[in-house]
Each structure stands twice: as C-alpha cells, then as structure tokens.
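User: Show me sequence and structure for the first protein, then do the same for the second.

Assistant: Starting with the first protein.
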Amino acid sequence: MNQSPDNVHIALIDFPAFYEGVFPSAKAAEDFYSEVDRLPPNHNTAKVILHQTARMVWLADKIDDVARGRPAFQILFYLIAAEFVAKLVSNFKGRGKVGDHILKFFTEICCDETRVRLGNSFKRTPYGDVSAADAVGLLYGVRCNVAHEGMYYSFSLPLDKAEGSVLVNLDGNTFTTDLLIEEIRRMVLEGAVSASRTLLSAASMSNP
C-alpha cells in the first residue's frame, strides 16, 4: 500500500504523496493538488474530499498493521469515505441514505474500470457473477455488520493474488471472491480524485 513511513500521525499526511499511486507520476499528483489548493478556502469542496478521503484510508492502512486478515475494518473506513464524497458531490444536506450514496460513489463517481472490476469480483455459488451494484451492496453489508454489530471477524478477502479466490458467506448467501483489499483502497482514492477533478472543473468554469 502507498503510504509514507514518516506519517506517524494523521495530521502529518503528505497529501500529494499519499495520492501518488493513482497518478501517472509524483509530479502529476503534486500539480493536481496544487491546483486544488489554490481554490478559495470557503469554496474548496474538492480539497475537503481529498483530505478526508486520505484520512479515512490512512486509518484503514494503520488497522492493517494490527488486524491483518480482517478486511471488514478497512472496508468500514473505505465506505465512510465513499459516502462522504458522494454526499459532498450531490450537495446532500440531510441524514441517512448511506447505502444510496455509497452505491453512487462506486457506480457513478468512480471510473468504468472500477465498475467492471466490481462486476466480476464476486460470484454467487452456483449462479455466477453478481453485478457491480450487487457487489457494492455486499461491501455495504460488511460495513453495516461492523458498524452496527461489531462483527468484523466473519468476512475475509484473499491476502494476495497468489491465494486466488476465497469463499465468503454474507447474510446466508455464499460467494467466492478474488477481490483484494488493495483494489478497494485504490478505487476509493481514484474516486476521490475523480470527484475533486469534477468540482475543480466546475469551479474553473464559474470563475474564468
């Protein structure tokens, strides 16, 4: 996972470096962050998205140090970020609609490659692939199990590609999956960048 060993406190995150892995180069990450950073503070939702997503992902990275093989914790933090980003993009001011906004993040804000990957990441035995939307629903179920019931130990993902697919049981249904936690992490970071880029473009058009 892309994280700086010098980041021993959440307040010390180097944001351009943190997002470097989802840009073609370190300079591209720095240039994009600099462009976002130039927006007026009171109109900089794009920067808020980048910062808050990085903080949630940073916390998930730290959990991996003490609870490796328990990806439900990380999924909780990743989906907190996904919900947050989607609500900011939608300018949603109310409460609730958590699942709807998480679905929006992965199926509307994230790129086509994310939707394709999610659509072939889980297979319902013995019926085959589930849709991208259903895969998001499965991850949302994992998030709810952790947040509402403290159930972090009943869900697993492969530790690496060499492990191949693993069998998981969710709400009485059995699936196989080869989805890696690192893939979800990247999806969330890429989605945050995509959302920030959209907001940055809108801000540039309104302030030529």
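Switching to the second protein now.
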Amino acid sequence: MNPSHFALQARDLVSTAALTRGFVRSKGLYFCRPRHGFEDVFFLDLLRPSHDAFKVAVGIHVPMIAPKLMALGNADLPSPILFGYLGQLSGGAQKWYRFKGSMDLNIAMDAMWTDFNVQAEPWLRKFNTIEEIAWAFYEQRLKENLVEGKMRRPDPIAWAIYGWLLAQSGKAEESHEWLNKAQDEVTKPIYVKRGRIYSEKIAGARQIPRADPEQRLKEILEKEIL
C-alpha cells in the first residue's frame, strides 16, 4: 500500500473511532481532544519507504504556548510537550503496527485501539492541570539523572518551555527565573574545536553561531523579558 493511499484510508478509519473517544482530526493524521487549558493528542507515524507499518505517538499539547514553539521552527501542528509511543507507555519498546493491504490495515487499527485503551488513556488521565504537565516536563527534560549521576547539557529551549508552562500555571516568579536562565544561555558565545562544542574560549577553538531555534528563542525572550 503506497503512503498516500494509507494516509487516506487510515484517516477515515481513525477519524470515526477517534470521535467516540472525543478526539477530532486536526491535520493529516493528527487528532486532538480538548481539555481545560490543554489537549490530549495522538498521531500516526508511517514507516517508509520499505515497509507498511505505523506507530502511534500519544501526548499533551498546550495551545497557549504553541505560537512560541512555532516561532522556534516547529511545524504548524499540535506538537506535544510530553509524549510517548504506544508500547513505550507500558514500559516496553515503541510498537509498530504492520499491514500489507486494506484487510490487514483494519486488523492493525483494531490492535492499535486495544493498546490505546490499555496504555494511552490511563497515561493521559495522569494530567489534569498545567501545573502537573509542567512538573512532568521538568522530570522528563530538566531533572538531572541522579541514578547514573549524569549532568544534562544546557538546554535553553527546554528551560524556556518550562518557564512558559510555569507562567500558564500561575507561577510568575519561578517562570521569570527559568526564562532569564534561558536568555542568559542563548546570549553566551559558543565555540567549536574538532567537532566538540565549548561554552568557553579555548586554544584553537573558533566561535560559531548558535543554531537557528536558539537564535529565534533569543529574539522571543528579548521581547518578553524587560
């Protein structure tokens, strides 16, 4: 089955079943279910070009900060702040749903919805407020790995997202701290030597521009932080 035919058939199959669960199609194979201040989302990702199979990502989307994420270069889609694939949500590996034709696709969809009910729905029900989403984002993207003792590399985009989530949950002072931290980071020069990135000038290193998303973040924060 070619990708375009899959997308059309899958769209029709998923749309009907999704409606019974409160989801409506956004774009393509993206589906959203509105809640208070955020949305449950899921989307189908097709394995191409050598196999007929798809996987399903499930996540949380926060519309109030979506314009900022789009300004950083994200696609005009309900990009999830938190997400995991079916299979992963039950503690395993992401699951591929394989098919060879229309009949197999129906069977694969039935299997997907069974997993969705068992894995995705309980996971989504963990989140009821923006504050809970912010805390989960912190645990997933910002908290140091205390078990293995690993330190995370500076991630000003994640810091900014966390700051925006805090602002949406009413924590203005904490939000300002994280946004200032992100702004401080993206204004620092960075250097490269033999393919390694350094935050300080060392012998033989040359200064390089920050990646486009970080440059866009700098522009956003310059307007936000007075």
